[in-house]
Specification:
The structure holds 2 protein chains of 2 kinds.
Chain A lengths: L3 H4 L13 E4 L5 H12 L9 E6 L12 H10 L2 E7 L6 H6 L3 E3 L34 H6 L5 E3 L8 E4 L4 E3 L8 E4 L3 E7 L2 E4 L9 E6 L3 E4 L2 E4 L13 E6 L6 E6 L4
Parallel strand pairs in A: 1-2, 2-3, 3-4, 5-7, 6-8, 7-9, 8-10, 9-11, 10-12
Antiparallel strand pairs in A: 11-14, 12-13, 14-15
Chain B lengths: L2 E6 L7 H14 L4 E5 L7 H4 L10 H5 L5 H4 L1 E2 L6 E4 L12 H13 L4 E5 L6 H8 L3 E6 L3 H17 L1 H4 L6 E9 L1 H5 L6 H8 L3 E6 L2 H9 L10 H13 L16 H6 L3
Parallel strand pairs in B: 1-5, 1-6, 2-4, 2-5, 6-7, 7-8
Antiparallel strand pairs in B: 3-4
Chain lengths: ~260, ~270
Amino acid sequence: MADASLQGKLIEFKGASLAVMTAHVRETEAVRLADALHMMLGGMPDFFAGEPAVLDFAQLASTPDRVDWTAIISLLRRYQVQPIGVRNLPDYLHDGARRANLAILGPEGISAERPIAPPKPQAPPPAPAPVEAPPAPQPAAAASAAPATTMVVERPLRSGQQVYAKGGDLVLLAGMSPGSEVIADGCIHCYGPLRGRALAGARGDTSARIFSTNFGPELVSIAGVYRTFERGIPQTVAGRSTQVRLSGSDNLHTLEIMPLQND
Amino acid sequence: MARVIVVTSGKGGVGKTTTSASISTGLALRGYKTAVIDFDVGLRNLDLIMGCERRVVYDLINVVNGEANLHQALIKDKHCENLFILPASQTRDKDALTEEGVEKVLKELEHMGFDYVICDSPAGIERGAVMALTFADEAIVVSNPEVSSVRDSDRILGILQSKSRRAMEGREPVKEHLLVTRYAPKRVEDGEMLSYKDVQELLRVPLIGVIPESDDVLQASNQGTPAIHLKDSDVATAYQDVIARFLEEERPLRFVNYEKPGLLKRIFGGK
């Protein structure tokens, strides 16, 4: 047996520190969480693609008598978030969490340092619930295998739906309706009517742009520089192929909205 | 396989129940065994429109809670052999609906050999409406030709895309149909109403029909007869066209253009 030395080591335990997504849970009522998640990710039930997450209860608004862990876990699984443990949870709730097979983690979490929160989209306050960007460096394996940083939405985006293309571009193949909201860290490409709120360069990328074949949004924003259209969309671009970009120097950015010559 | 069709809209008062009654009747008249379920728990109305309010003994919630079986609760329609009505409870509220309960009822209807199950959704986007659309295979989205109704329909289409079982399980999405109701061609011509083309452009859902605005609808409700039964009524004809299109027969759109009243009509009056 050449591998005799390995025979005893079919399993080996080593310390490792992993970056993991933290979900700051401020409410334990599953129904209200479900509503909030739906507002945030309505059309994208597979947004998180199985990412593990630690549930952090440090910012809990009120302390509940008990927590329906089964409901919360199944709710998160529905959005393909894999809860692995909890932290900053009041002591008297630990038993319940253990019974639900969640690890109780110290306040410092798994790794010694707190994951650095990415800069929040410095957009004007997005309407219903701001999409909180999950800490960036997570799905190492998945991401490196398929560097698909572009998100494609094939169906019309409806009023009340919200999509966030984390770390890349967003392509809408069937347009978006009034009352919907799209956010991308990169560019937004919209084939079909652009009607809701479109926020590109959400993490501050000033070179991001918005393209649409049928321009008519409620609000556009690039890297936090935004514009609304209370007096209507300018005649030169309304309903036409249009791009939006930032121009000007570093500290004096202005939004430029111009028709695209493509006919 | 029983095909589950939800009639929904988001906004209230656009004609969901009228449509549910006429669509279910139309399918039953074509020979399909059809059930129509009122999901508007607490504000039940379908039984009135179908004219069976005096025969309600058990309701949907009784069946969901196991207090009655489906055979006891289903009310046979007075006009059609193949049509059964499952009324909503008037004394409970929508929280009494559970996903498991609704699923059980739909499964049982399938076992009983129903071809179509029409779910008449309540207005709003809360529990009752979500329960009505959860198990849908097809959706008829009812919209009036005005902006707030269109916006609400858009919202409900989004919910359909995210909360229906088909969406959750990643199956083929719910088949969507747009039905524009209370359409008044003259007011469209005068620019007071959106045209059906505008509505369709805003919602980007295939159009299954346009139902004209008509006093006949109110009259039919008062009589407890689904509008599709009315003789010589544009509304009845329009709903029959909808049924035909639903069954994939070709029908041209009618009642969408405004015809100026002719000289004789202007002199002698008449509708």
